[in-house]
Specification:
The protein has about 110 residues and is of the alpha+beta class. It has two helices and five strands. Keywords: Protein biosynthesis, Translation regulation.
Length: about 110
Amino acid sequence: MNDWKDRLNVVYSTNPDFKYDTDKEEEQDTLPKEKQQLRIQLDKRNRKGKAVTLITGFVGTIEDLEELGKFLKVKCGVGGSAKDHEIIVQGDLRNKVLELLQKEGYVKSRII
């Protein structure tokens, strides 16, 4: 954690306990399944007319997001990705995704 690029704006400090503040985001703890408010929607923008199911609203670590994304992709039998706090599942599978999430315990999930 001694990268000089993170300290470019600090010239000198006499405080021996001084900690350099960086603008890096801390990962948020994953909320329990029953408190997650996931929104499921159909998205066709910037995808050359192909429809994808977009799941947003996940609050938690990147590892948990990727794990949920992998679960949904395997159960639906399609491809997709999990990044930027959203899960993309190829195809119009809104009802199936909602059903799978509710069976897993994500009771506050809804289709927009």
